[in-house]
Amino acid sequence: MQRKFYVRAFIIAAIFLIASTFYYLPFYVSKPGMAKELEPIIEVENGYEEEGSFMLTTVRMGRANIYSYLAAKFNKYHQIHPEEMIKSPDETDEEYNVRQLHLMTSSQTAAIEVSYQKAGKQIDYKYKGVYVLNVFDDMPAAGKLAVGDKIFEVDGREFESSDQFVDYVGGKKAGEEISLSFERDGKTKNVSLPIEPYKDNPEKVGVGIMLTEDKEVITDPEVTLDTEDIGGPSAGLMFSLEIYNQLTEDDLTNGYNIAGTGTIDPEGKVGRIGGIEQKVVAADKAGAEIFLAPFEGGAEESNYQAAVTTAKDIKTDMKIVPVNTFDEAVQYLERLEKK
User: Fold this and answer.
1) What would be the CATH architecture of the domain defined by 124-215?
2) Computed from CA positions of residues 45, 47, 50, 56, in that sequence, does the dihedral angle turn out positive or negative?
3) Domain ranges for the chain
4) Alpha-carbon dihedral of residues 107, 113, 114, 117, nearest 10 degrees?
5) What is the 3-class SS of 260-277, one letter each residue?
6) 234 an active-site residue?
7) The overall pTM is greater than 0.70
8) pLDDT mean over 51-67
9) Cβ count within 10 A of residue 20
10) Where in the numbering of this chain does the PDZ domain appear (predicted)?
11) 187 has catalytic annotation
12) Residues 252-280: pLDDT tens digits?
């Protein structure tokens, strides 16, 4: 009888433990991810080889269950984030993932633009439309459009950029309607939506969507990027450096393993990212010798300052380098002595 009691108790406990792993709290937990070499996933046609490596760094992010939440409480480089700080209101996990992947695509496009222009190479564009990144639940697009929809016409017009789209819609008056043609799951759909003022900014009107461009970059020589399911815009700086290095004869790595992070815009400005501390930890574990961090114009609480603090805390020999722009990063690397 006693043996049966223990067996039942064990089974009940096991069921509870398994079930509790699928009970999610209204938080996300982030922790150090990986530092991944870029040469195997970026290929410039007939590009130059490099002796060292450029590496992107990532943060692992997931919804918190009770166990990951408790583990994060006792691990300095695991961070807990309220759900509303990670996702937009009413945004599903699928929509969040789609948004992150589109941000990654935009980051790749900007990196290609910056690196090819710096190398003096040919670059052209084919504009395809705009992707929906977010839909506001209190605006006309709610329930009509979804994250990932590609809008290619407004009132029968095609546009050359997302700015033209925004300017056209923003020039309408509240109460007017616009007709959108969009693609979802390979099928073309049409919808008419009224223009309304935004609740938090009544002077601004629209249908309640956040957008990103769907723009094909045509290059000579051709470049391909295989980033799989890596999301977000924070690898922009490192993408641009890897592409530029393959385009030019002189090897910017000079034999070093160089990690880093930072967004990049088409003008080459390096922007702030999240999770810098965790990315420093990931880079150190991967054996990086140099880490490039956004300097943000020398701001007191810049990514660079946080990276320096983390590097001291984990007692790494990795050198933390501040950068404001792509050009600054290139100039620093050009001055490195060969390893």
Assistant:
1) Roll (2.30)
2) negative
3) 30-87+221-334, 124-215
4) 170
5) ECCEECCCCEEECCCCHH
6) yes
7) yes
8) 93
9) 11
10) 111-186
11) no
12) 999 999 999 999 999 999 999 999 999 99
